[in-house]
Amino acid sequence: MYVKGVGPARAEILEGKGLRTVEDLLSYAPFRYEDRSNIKLLKSLAPSEMATVMCQVHTVRSSRFQARHLGLLEVAFTDRAGGKITGKWFHGGYLANVLVPGMNVALYGKVEFDSYTRGLVMMHPDFEVIPETAEDEPEAAALHTGRLVAIYEAAGKITTRVFRTLLHRILTTLAPVADPIPTGIRERLKLLDYWEAVKAVHFPPAENDVRTLNAFRSPAHWRLIFEEFFWLEMGLALKRAKARQARGIQFSLHDGIREKIKAMLPFKPTGAQKKVLKEIAGDMASPQPMSRLLQGDVGSGKTLVAAEAAVIAIENGYQTALIAPTEILATQHYFSIKHLFDRIGYVTVLLVGSQTAGEKKGIKKLVAAGLTPMVIGTHALLEEDVEFARLGLVVIDEQHRFGVMQRRKLSEKGDTPDVLVMTATPIPRTLALTIYGDLDTSTIDELPPGRKPIATRSATEERMEQIWAFVRQQVSEGRQVYVVCPLIEENETQQMKAAEKTYEELEARTFPDLAVGLLHGRLKPAEKEDVMGRFQRGELQILVATTVIEVGVDVPNASVMVILQAERFGLAQLHQLRGRVGRGAHPSFCILSTGKLTEAGQERIRSMVESSDGFHLAEMDLKLRGPGEFFGTRQSGMPALRIANILRDREILEIARTEAMSLVEHPPSEQELTRCLQFIREHWQRRYGLIEVG
Ligand code: ADP
Ligand code: MG
User: Of 53, 211, 501, 529, which one has the greatest count of Cβ atoms within 10 A?
Assistant: First the structure.
C-alpha cells in the first residue's frame, strides 16, 4: 500500500491492526461520531449533558494533596466567549506534557457541576488537539472541526486525527470504486452507492443526525453493514450450493432399517426426535451429500438420533464414524452407543490417542477391513493411517471445537459421505447463520418425558457450610453429587491444582466418611475411566471435577450439581454443567456458589436461576459476552467482521442472507454469479479466512 503519510513505522502499526491495504483502511469504521458543526459555547452547557466543546488550554495543574498517589491532573479551559470548564484526569500526569497552555482542543465528555468550586467540570473527557491550521494542509481544519466528525479507535501512535487525515487523502485521490453488489439488489433495497457510502461513513454529510450515526443506522452504515453480511452469506450460500452439486451416497430406506431401529430403542423417541430423524433420513436418501446441523438443548437426546442415522448407513453396508473433541466425551459416546448397538449385534469400536500402539493398530486393521460398522474416537481418527473400507456417514459432535479443515479431513476418508454435525451448546440463530450458514439445520425442541425441572439456587461463598450440609443430606438419601471447580481461563494446570485442593479438603475434612473421587483432564485415560466407572456404579458419592464433565456425562442417580465460583463460567457452559443432573427420576438441584460478582457476573447468575431454556440462555450469553467470547475460544470459526455486529445488526443479517440465498438459487445470469464468485475470491476470502468458496 502506498499512501502519503504512511511510512514503514505507521505501516507496521496498521498491520498490527490487520490494516494492510487501502481497502482495509477504507473499511476501518469509526466507532463514534461527534457533532462539531454547531459547537456549544461553554456558558450554554447544562450539567449532565454529553457535549463537545472547542476551547483553549488555560492552565495545567498537577495536584497530589487531595488524595495521595492519585496524581490528579486538573486543566482549566476557556473558550472564545470567556466561558470556563475544568477537565480532570486521575493518574493524568502523563498529559501534563500533552496539554500545554494556549493549545486549542476539542473536548468531549459529560458535563458536571462541581458544587465545591461552583464551576463546570468534565471527568476524563476525550480530547483532540486542534493544531493551528497546519501549513502543509490548509484544508485540515475543515476535516476535524465545524462538521460531523468521525472518531476512530487509535492504533499506537496513530490517533483518530491521523486516521481522519489518511482517509481523507485516500478518498480524494482514489478514483471511485464501482459498486460490487448486483444492480437488482441495490435497486430493490435502495442501497446507497458503495463509494458514496464509504465516503459518508468517514465524513458524514451535514444532513446526517449524530444519533443515527452513533446507532450505525445512517444510510451509509446500513449499506456497508449489509454489504459485509451479504458477501459472507454469499460465500456460505455458494459453498452450500457447491456441496449440493456433488454426488453423494443415496442410502435406501428399507424395512430392515425400521426393524433394526425398533429393536435397538430402549424407549419411545420423542416427537422432536422423530421429526429430526425424518429430516436426516430424507437427506440420506437423496443423492446429494448431507450437511446438516443437529441442535438440541442438553439432554434432548441427540445421541439417540445419531445412532438411528448410523443404523441407516450400516444397514446399507456402510461404516459410520463419530468424532468428539475430548477423550472423555468420545468414551461416553462409545459406551452409550455400544449399549444400543449391542442389542442389535453391531460391533462398536473406540479409537483414542491414549490407547497403546498395539491396540490402535489392531483397531485400525479392523476399520480398514470394514469389519467395524461403528467407529468412535477423537482426533486420533484423523490420522493419516486411519482408513475406512466404506465410510458412509460422518457424525461430528461439538463441532465448534473442531476446525473446518478437520471436518473435511474426516469426510475425505470416505467417498463423499453424509455429514451430521451435532452441537451440545444451543447456538443463537444469528451466530448459527454466520458460522453454520452452509448447513441445513434440525432442532430437537423437546425434552424426553419425565424430566423433573432442576431447582437452581445461588449462594455466596460464606454459606459453603450450608451447601455442604445439603449435599450430605442428599447423599444420605442415596443420591450422588458433582462438585465442579472454578474455571481458570486457558490454564489447565492451575485448574487441575484447584480441583486437587478442593478434592483433598472435601475428602479429608468435610466428608471423611464418604467416598469422594476426582476427575480432571490430566489424569491418565485408564484413571479417568476408573473414576467415571466408579461414579457410574454408585461407588463414589461425590465427584470433584473440572469442566471435563461439561458434556456427555450421563449418570441418572446424580441429582446435585455444585459449581464453585460460578461467576467465572459463561452461561452456555453453566447450562451444560447443569444438564449433567436432572437425568433420573429424582428431584435435582444446581447450586451456584459465588465469589465477588461483577455486574455482568450477577446478571449471568440471575439468568441461570431464572431460566432453564438453553436457547434463551445462549442469547443472553451472546449479549453479555459478545460473539468473540461466546464459545470460550477465539478460534471458533467466527468471521472477523469490520463494521457489522451480529447483536446490533441482526435484522440486516437476515435480509442479507435472504438476498444471498436467492441470488445463488436464482441468479439473474451466469455472468452475474461468476462475477460475484470472483469478487469474493479477490476481496473476502482473506478476511473470512476459513471460508473457502468453489
Ligand atoms: P444430549 O446429547 O442431547 O445432551 P443425550 O443423548 O445424552 O442428550 O440424552 C440424554 C438422556 O436422555 C440419556 O440418558 C438418554 O438415554 C435419554 N433419552 C434420550 N432420548 C430419550 C427418550 N426418547 N425417552 C427417554 N429418555 C431418552
Ligand atoms: Mg450427548
Answer: 53
